[in-house]
Amino acid sequence: MNYNEAYAKLEQCGQLHILKYYHELTQEQQNALLTEIEETDFSVLKLAEKQSIPKRGMISPIPAMPLSEIEKQRQRFEAAGIKALQEGKAAAVLLAGGMGTRLGSDKPKGMYNIGITKELYIFERMIANLMETVRTAGTKLHLFIMTSDKNHTQTTEFFAEKQYFGYDRNYIHFFKQEMAPASDYNGLALMEEKWKIATSPNGNGGWFKSMAGSGMLDIIKMHGIEYLNVFAVDNVLQRIADPVFLGAVIEQNYACGSKVIRKVSPEEKVGVMCLENNHPSIVEYYELTEEMRYEKTTDGDLAYNFGVILNYLFRVDQLESLLRNTLPYHVAEKKIPYIDQNGNSVVPKETNGYKYELFILDMISMLDTCLPFEVVREKEFAPIKNKTGVDSVESAQKLLQQNGIEL
Length: 407
Ligand code: UTP
Fold this sequence. Notes:
Layout: H1 3-12, H2 27-39, H3 47-50, E1 59-60, H4 67-86, E2 90-95, H5 122-137, E3 143-147, H6 152-161, E4 172-176, E5 179-181, E6 191-193, E7 196-197, E8 199-201, H7 207-213, H8 216-222, E9 227-232, H9 243-251, E10 256-262, E11 272-276, E12 279-283, H10 290-294, E13 306-315, H11 316-322, E14 329-334, E15 338-339, E16 345-346, E17 353-358, H12 361-364, E18 370-374, H13 377-380, H14 393-402
The structure holds uridine 5'-triphosphate.
Uridine 5'-triphosphate binds next to loops.
């Protein structure tokens, strides 16, 4: 894209200020900026005006498959899951494109050392968890790792340095997620440098489109992979490509599955599975009305009792059909470093604009069926969001030790 083309594109979307410093940049910086303007979709910034919170439909409870039911059918599910793994039909997708701001480390979250007497990295735990499935099924499986522009080099170099924690390098595929521009409250793109638009990873909902856009779908097709188990980087206890979960979704022909945990209290701040206009969906804790929060089923259980842990199983053919739809962007107020009117770098102390993100949970509501599959909380849920307190390095360390993992 040349200067005139960039000018025309920006003029059309009201973002001409991006070229303010163009004529004082070096040739290299000018080229970098023009490429970024060409690649960036600015249409998302229109959402600033509406401060868009996607509208919710009619919410009602969804039945989950409880532990008792899973236990009764465990052998059958496990056999079906192992068969699919042995036929090479399932792969895993690690979402590691996030910024991990709450943890406050300047490195990718997966590089965080959670060991006490020895080094033990979050990525290392992910690989160890995956290896359990490899051992159970007696077969290797492909692992796709999503990074972002912000952490790709560090992540890939770290894995190489650690020799992929013993995992077969030929089965690991890195891909970068797409980025979205960040803006001030009026929807004007912020600049990180005079030659660089402030961007951030476009949210965990962008994973499949980013996979398709970076050629990963070809690998999926080439190997005949039909199911993808997508999981977050921060739950260090989760089972990955769990054959029982896989088998349950396959056997009953669900479009997708979601591992869920029973809430500890009605007030727990976790998104829960529900039906929305009769489609499976997830409602955030703050979206539940007071009445819904305490609503009971005829059995006396909470009606909205099953929290999601960001461990989903998707069918590839269903995901491909989702590529035709657009997911809604969510707008979040954040502190975004920027270049001010006078060209000075500012690191704001207060929130100063919006970031735009896609959420994986919106993919669920676009599918016809989803199996909420209960797992034992103490055995499969140890998220690391913060350094201390709730969902922290400390709480995860305790849970790992309780499960006999040496730290
Ligand atoms: P979180 O919502 O906890 O975000 O991500 P985060 O970036 O890790 O942490 P905070 O909110 O800045 O503290 C849940 C999962 O989704 C991934 C994360 O890497 C994590 O595995 N994710 C999130 C992405 O891969 N890309 C994104 O753009 C956002």
